[in-house]
Design brief:
The structure is a single chain. The protein is mainly alpha-helical. The chain contains six helices and two strands. The longest helix is centred in the middle third of the chain and has 18 residues, at 75-92.
Length: 131
């Protein structure tokens, strides 16, 4: 069984995400497809896919959906969810970020200069390694 990351205890993790946990990306990228699938599943389940630039078909915030107003998130809510997505991707790909032959100094520098902690940038860099 692949090694999985440990999620924060305060996060309400339901049975669905327990059955399909996030796996750690192996340094040699041998489990890349499994890693990508598990991260995307978790993000989709928690309606966070938009933070990596993928549209998940969720109703727009502040618009009517099935007769109900979808509540607007505060900037703090968005900021914290964005950082959560970044940290989740980072933690699950740590072996690649720190020691992989695929992760050059140039890429490492690009990630560390990501002062906004943009999860989309980190996700795109990691996915490009597989191309």
């Amino acid at each position: 069984m692949p090694e999985t990351i440990e999620l924060p205890g305060v996060l309400d993790t339901t049975l669905a995400t327990k059955l399909l946990p996030i796996v750690n990306l192996q340094e040699n990228l041998s489990n890349f497809d499994e890693w990508r699938h598990s991260v995307r599943f978790f993000l989709r389940y928690h309606k966070l896919l938009t933070f990596i630039g993928e549209h998940a078909g969720y109703p727009a915030i502040g618009h009517m959906h099935r007769g109900n107003l979808v509540e607007k998130d505060t900037n703090d809510d968005i900021f914290h969810r964005r950082l959560f997505v970044y940290s989740l991707i980072w933690k699950s790909a740590e072996a690649v970020i720190y020691s992989s032959l695929y992760f050059t100094w140039e890429l490492r520098d690009k990630v560390h200069k990501n002062s906004q902690h943009d999860p989309r940038l980190l996700w795109n860099i990691l996915c490009a390694l597989r191309s």
